[in-house]
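Quiz preparation item.
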């Protein structure tokens, strides 16, 4: 049974490159009842949102204020080091690994690797993944799964 519906970077009904990974967009998805996977960089002793590089400054306070709904993808080694000291936050690192384990022991499965019992299926629409064994879905189209 799917219990975690996770908006990929704040997207609900498809990618929006201009808005994704912005604080307002993330909060909107949370207000609509979704968890959100965000991309976070650590650069020059600060945290930033952004997919391809650090783009929008985000404070530790902002992360903690939304922490119950965030799945934090650490985008560089500085970020994974920083988050490894913050046990309350939910984070992970991956590149193109088939799966990775999040800090709260969820199996985060790269597209095309389902079915895996008790995993999070990432972008299952890409490969028409079998979702029968997963407990969560992360997608740009998460509204389709509600």
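Solution:
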């Amino acid at each position: 049974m799917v219990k975690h519906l996770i908006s990929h970077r704040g997207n609900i009904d498809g990618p929006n490159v201009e808005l994704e990974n912005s604080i307002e967009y993330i909060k909107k998805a949370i207000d609509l009842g979704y968890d959100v996977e965000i991309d976070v960089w650590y650069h020059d002793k600060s945290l930033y949102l952004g997919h391809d590089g650090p783009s929008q400054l985000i404070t530790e306070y902002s992360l903690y204020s939304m922490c119950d709904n965030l799945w934090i993808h650490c985008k560089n080694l500085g970020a994974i080091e920083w988050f490894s000291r913050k046990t309350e936050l939910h984070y992970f690192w991956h590149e193109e690994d088939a799966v990775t384990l999040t800090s709260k022991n969820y199996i985060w499965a790269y597209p095309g690797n389902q079915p895996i019992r008790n995993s999070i299926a990432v972008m299952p629409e890409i490969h028409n993944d079998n979702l029968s064994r997963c407990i969560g879905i992360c997608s740009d189209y998460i509204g389709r799964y509600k």
